[in-house]
């Protein structure tokens, strides 16, 4: 039987993968297995609030993970109790460090409160491949000649592809190796809440002063200023003051400025006035080097066969890649033997996307059928509403589920421009946030495509 500590570590490792950092630390900090009575696992939680939340939201997942680890687990009970000494010691930590699933996590301890830089992010452990080499080169250029050519530096790309890592590395470089030590890193959300607080407390002037004093300012995930008019105004003036005094400013975003919605035109044109570079998804070789590098740094023992398997199935995010390796490492330790590919498949089944046994033509056909239109109308120029939506959904699915390139999608759909495809993709992505019917339709379509 696996020890309870290892069981719980396994749960944490998987939940950490599934949740945002903030969520994970909110709901899983100070949890643990209190005891086990045959098939029942008693989980310690710090208070009723966390207990109720876990029961409502994560109970099924936790049970599933526990059962995967140990088939004899039948039920979970939640006990409210403090893990006192541990709680004191680890007040500020996220669980990643306590369970040591990732030694990277350990370094979060050392995030510098003055500048929000995390020393774990350096260019030494940043793997460069064709997917990110342009962004990397632009970062080097900024390090060499800050505030001159590439101001702002605007790096965009999907989540988990290394934007934060890269811009933090640049920050660390300035702090440690140059006279421009006064670096500040912040996410646009914290920037916004900082601003709002300063207004509430009637300290807007202090806010302005504070943000203008740095040599290098790095703002992460700038897409979240979308729709926030006051914040954008503040940012606009702030940017100008940096620009005019030749001080470097760096942004990251999940999309290019052109596609950030509800963004003031003047700010958009500032973003576009410097250097815009993207980070795309890593190719197989790069994924392989990233995993190997991580294994080496952490002294994990994972076989080449497994490394190659993971690199081949996890294609979308370096964060997921790391998470998978951590999970595998954890399980290998818990089981005290190498895992079989079959076990790994099971472990990572949520990360595996439908493979291409479904063809692009299937997508067209299924969507056309679903909306009861003739397939050939999709390729025509018509802008009729009943055709536009299915067409956009096809574009969305081809991109989201198949990683098809925008130009290729455009070509497949009657020779449309790739920007049209990007628009469609972004539109559906936005719409599914609020449009429940659309979400249901997509579910049904995916069901038709993949479950047969
Ligand atoms: P993003 O900000 O784009 O969402 P992150 O910078 O947070 O992504 O990267 C996710 C994880 O992947 C981090 O742990 C980071 O260290 C790692 N990572 C990203 N890119 C690379 C790379 N090129 N080489 C090594 N590790 C990377
Ligand atoms: Mg990031």
Automatic annotation (TrEMBL):
<dbReference type="InterPro" id="IPR010921">
    <property type="entry name" value="Trp_repressor/repl_initiator"/>
</dbReference>
<comment type="function">
    <text>Plays an essential role in the initiation and regulation of chromosomal replication. ATP-DnaA binds to the origin of replication (oriC) to initiate formation of the DNA replication initiation complex once per cell cycle. Binds the DnaA box (a 9 base pair repeat at the origin) and separates the double-stranded (ds)DNA. Forms a right-handed helical filament on oriC DNA; dsDNA binds to the exterior of the filament while single-stranded (ss)DNA is stabiized in the filament's interior.</text>
</comment>
<dbReference type="InterPro" id="IPR020591">
    <property type="entry name" value="Chromosome_initiator_DnaA-like"/>
</dbReference>
<dbReference type="InterPro" id="IPR038454">
    <property type="entry name" value="DnaA_N_sf"/>
</dbReference>
<feature type="binding site">
    <location>
        <position position="160"/>
    </location>
    <ligand>
        <name>ATP</name>
    </ligand>
</feature>
<keyword id="KW-0446">Lipid-binding</keyword>
<dbReference type="InterPro" id="IPR013159">
    <property type="entry name" value="DnaA_C"/>
</dbReference>
<dbReference type="Pfam" id="PF00308">
    <property type="entry name" value="Bac_DnaA"/>
</dbReference>
<dbReference type="Pfam" id="PF08299">
    <property type="entry name" value="Bac_DnaA_C"/>
</dbReference>
<feature type="binding site">
    <location>
        <position position="163"/>
    </location>
    <ligand>
        <name>ATP</name>
    </ligand>
</feature>
<feature type="region of interest" description="Domain IV, binds dsDNA">
    <location>
        <begin position="333"/>
        <end position="452"/>
    </location>
</feature>
<keyword id="KW-0235">DNA replication</keyword>
<feature type="domain" description="AAA+ ATPase">
    <location>
        <begin position="149"/>
        <end position="283"/>
    </location>
</feature>
<dbReference type="GO" id="GO:0005524">
    <property type="term" value="F:ATP binding"/>
</dbReference>
<dbReference type="InterPro" id="IPR013317">
    <property type="entry name" value="DnaA_dom"/>
</dbReference>
<dbReference type="GO" id="GO:0005886">
    <property type="term" value="C:plasma membrane"/>
</dbReference>
<dbReference type="Pfam" id="PF11638">
    <property type="entry name" value="DnaA_N"/>
</dbReference>
<dbReference type="InterPro" id="IPR027417">
    <property type="entry name" value="P-loop_NTPase"/>
</dbReference>
<keyword id="KW-0067">ATP-binding</keyword>
<comment type="subunit">
    <text>Oligomerizes as a right-handed, spiral filament on DNA at oriC.</text>
</comment>
<dbReference type="GO" id="GO:0005737">
    <property type="term" value="C:cytoplasm"/>
</dbReference>
<dbReference type="GO" id="GO:0006275">
    <property type="term" value="P:regulation of DNA replication"/>
</dbReference>
<keyword id="KW-0963">Cytoplasm</keyword>
<feature type="binding site">
    <location>
        <position position="162"/>
    </location>
    <ligand>
        <name>ATP</name>
    </ligand>
</feature>
<dbReference type="InterPro" id="IPR001957">
    <property type="entry name" value="Chromosome_initiator_DnaA"/>
</dbReference>
<keyword id="KW-0238">DNA-binding</keyword>
<dbReference type="GO" id="GO:0003688">
    <property type="term" value="F:DNA replication origin binding"/>
</dbReference>
<feature type="domain" description="Chromosomal replication initiator DnaA C-terminal">
    <location>
        <begin position="359"/>
        <end position="428"/>
    </location>
</feature>
<feature type="region of interest" description="Domain III, AAA+ region">
    <location>
        <begin position="116"/>
        <end position="332"/>
    </location>
</feature>
<dbReference type="InterPro" id="IPR003593">
    <property type="entry name" value="AAA+_ATPase"/>
</dbReference>
<dbReference type="InterPro" id="IPR024633">
    <property type="entry name" value="DnaA_N_dom"/>
</dbReference>
<dbReference type="GO" id="GO:0006270">
    <property type="term" value="P:DNA replication initiation"/>
</dbReference>
<comment type="similarity">
    <text>Belongs to the DnaA family.</text>
</comment>
<dbReference type="GO" id="GO:0008289">
    <property type="term" value="F:lipid binding"/>
</dbReference>
<protein>
    <recommendedName>
        <fullName>Chromosomal replication initiator protein DnaA</fullName>
    </recommendedName>
</protein>
<keyword id="KW-0547">Nucleotide-binding</keyword>
<feature type="region of interest" description="Domain I, interacts with DnaA modulators">
    <location>
        <begin position="1"/>
        <end position="90"/>
    </location>
</feature>
<dbReference type="InterPro" id="IPR018312">
    <property type="entry name" value="Chromosome_initiator_DnaA_CS"/>
</dbReference>
<feature type="binding site">
    <location>
        <position position="164"/>
    </location>
    <ligand>
        <name>ATP</name>
    </ligand>
</feature>
């Amino acid at each position: 039987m696996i020890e309870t500590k290892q069981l719980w570590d396994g749960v944490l490792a998987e939940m950490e993968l599934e949740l945002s950092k903030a969520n994970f630390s909110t709901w899983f900090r100070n949890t643990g297995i209190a005891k086990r009575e045959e098939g029942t696992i008693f989980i310690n939680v710090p208070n009723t609030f966390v207990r109720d939340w876990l029961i409502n939201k994560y109970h099924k997942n936790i049970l599933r993970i526990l059962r995967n680890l140990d088939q004899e687990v039948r039920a979970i009970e939640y006990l409210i109790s403090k893990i006192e000494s541990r709680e004191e010691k680890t007040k500020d930590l996220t669980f990643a460090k306590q369970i040591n699933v990732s030694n990277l996590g350990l370094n979060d301890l050392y995030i510098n409160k003055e500048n929000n830089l995390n020393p774990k992010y350096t260019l030494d452990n940043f793997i460069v491949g064709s997917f990110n080499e342009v962004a990397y080169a632009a970062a080097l250029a900024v390090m060499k000649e800050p505030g001159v050519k590439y101001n702002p530096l605007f790096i965009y790309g999907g989540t988990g592809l290394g934007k934060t890592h890269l811009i933090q590395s640049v920050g660390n470089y300035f702090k440690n190796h140059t006279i421009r030590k006064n670096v500040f890193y912040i996410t646009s959300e914290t920037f916004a809440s900082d601003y709002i607080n300063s207004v509430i407390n009637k300290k807007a002037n202090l806010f302005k002063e504070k943000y203008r004093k740095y040599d290098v300012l790095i703002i992460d995930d700038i897409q979240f200023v979308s729709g926030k008019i006051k914040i954008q105004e503040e940012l606009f003036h702030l940017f100008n003051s940096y620009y005019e005094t030749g001080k470097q400013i760096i942004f990251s975003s999940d999309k290019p400025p052109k596609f950030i919605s509800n963004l003031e035109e003047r700010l958009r044109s500032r973003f576009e006035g410097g250097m815009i570079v993207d980070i795309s998804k890593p190719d197989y070789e790069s994924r392989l080097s990233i995993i190997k590098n991580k294994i080496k740094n952490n002294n994990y023992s994972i076989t080449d066969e497994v490394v190659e398997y993971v690199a081949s199935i996890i294609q979308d995010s370096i964060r997921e890649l790391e998470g998978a390796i951590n999970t595998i490492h954890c399980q290998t330790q818990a089981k005290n033997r190498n895992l079989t590919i079959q076990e790994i498949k099971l472990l990572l089944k949520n990360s595996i996307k439908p493979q291409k046994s479904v063809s692009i033509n299937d997508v067209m056909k299924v969507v056309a059928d679903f909306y009861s239109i003739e397939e050939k109308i999709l390729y025509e120029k018509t802008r009729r509403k009943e055709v536009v939506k299915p067409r956009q959904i096809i574009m969305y699915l081809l991109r989201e589920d198949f990683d098809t390139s925008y130009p290729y999608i455009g070509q497949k759909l009657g020779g449309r421009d790739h920007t049209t495809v990007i628009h469609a993709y972004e539109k559906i992505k936005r719409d599914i946030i609020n449009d429940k019917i659309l979400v249901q339709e997509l579910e049904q379509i995916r069901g038709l495509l993949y479950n047969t």
